[in-house]
Design goal:
With 280 residues, the chain is an alpha/beta fold. It has a domain of 195 residues: NAD(P)-binding Rossmann-like Domain (Rossmann fold), CATH 3.40.50.720. It is 40% helix and 17% strand. It is built from 10 helices and 13 strands. The strands form 4 sheets. The chain has a 6-stranded parallel β-sheet with strand order 2-1-3-4-5-10, with helices on both faces. Strands 11-8-13 form a 3-stranded mixed β-sheet. It has a two-stranded parallel sheet with strand order 6-9. Strand 4, helix 5 and strand 5 form a beta-alpha-beta unit. Helix 2 packs parallel to helix 4. The protein starts with a strand and ends with a helix.
């Protein structure tokens, strides 16, 4: 297959380039293709004529989206319309990366793919808008708490803070599934190669709070996890501009019910990532 990967400079995009290496891959980052530019998107897709467009490009600065909703909607929603339009013109499928932020986090149980979305932030609303631009023949992958070797993420932040401070504080009232870019990319490859349409939640397994996750990161680095202390979201100073879902746990129900093996518990890829970061 010829596969066009957008957002190829990001932490997921770079892993996607690797997992599709046995296909004809065209990888473009923001500098090569601004997905908010309709003419550029249509020109690229109709020229390259891919079989699949894997869209991992997005504006994921959750707090910044609150201050610039027009940019959030342009990049996270309208741009998906451009990609879908271009894909239809050449008969290509789209696999689009979305987020746990489409939910407000008030459900007491993990969210399944058939739960009604109810985003509480501009970022979440704009990403849900992007989902709405796709057809039933396309694939939507929602994920959460992304970490990886490339780009900025919480594992790197926690390790940096642990090197700078004796104690660290992380919220203990926000729950989610940490997800590692390498594992996510492998699951996306499976969905694309097997031509599975529809909506899928794709995460690593193991629900934790950010406090528990920070302790796991510190422990994986060979440090004392007791250095990490819990704090309530309401006690953060200054408070974050964008609301965070208290419950971001995504049940990978569509994969599980389809008999598709789920990604490993997050502790396994976390150990590999910390070892790799410490070696580098």
């Amino acid at each position: 297959m010829r596969i066009l990967i957008t957002g190829a400079g990001g932490q997921v995009g770079r892993e996607l380039v690797d997992v599709f290496a046995d296909h004809d891959v065209v990888a473009v980052d923001h500098h090569r293709l601004d997905i908010a530019d309709r003419d550029a998107v249509l020109g690229a897709i109709t020229t390259l004529r891919p079989d699949v467009v894997v869209n991992s490009a997005a504006w994921t600065a959750v707090d910044a989206c609150e201050g610039d909703p027009d940019k959030a909607w342009a990049v996270n929603a309208l741009a998906v319309r451009h990609i879908a339009d271009g894909a239809r013109r050449v008969g290509a499928r789209v696999c689009h990366l979305s987020t746990d932020y489409v939910f407000d986090g008030t459900k007491s149980e993990p969210y399944v793919e058939w739960d009604p979305p109810s985003p509480a932030s501009t970022y979440g609303r704009s990403k849900l808008g992007g989902e709405a631009e796709l057809s039933p023949d396309d694939t939507i992958v929602r994920t959460s708490w992304m970490c990886g070797f490339h780009g900025a993420n919480m594992v790197k932040t926690i390790l940096r803070l642990a090197g700078e401070h004796d104690t660290l504080s992380f919220v203990d009232d926000q729950l989610g599934h940490p997800t590692f870019a390498e594992d996510l990319a492998a699951q996306i490859r499976r969905l694309v190669v097997e031509r599975r349409p529809g909506l899928f939640h794709v995460t690593n397994q193991g629900a934790v709070s950010w406090f528990e996750f920070a302790r796991a990161v510190v422990s994986a680095a060979g440090l004392d996890p007791a250095r990490v202390h819990p704090v309530a979201t309401a006690d953060l100073h200054p408070p974050r501009p964008a609301p965070r879902p208290a419950n971001s746990v995504l049940d990978n129900a569509a994969l599980r019910l389809s008999g598709v093996p789920l990604a490993d518990d997050f502790h396994e890829p976390l150990a590999r990532l910390v070892t790799r970061l410490q070696a580098g």
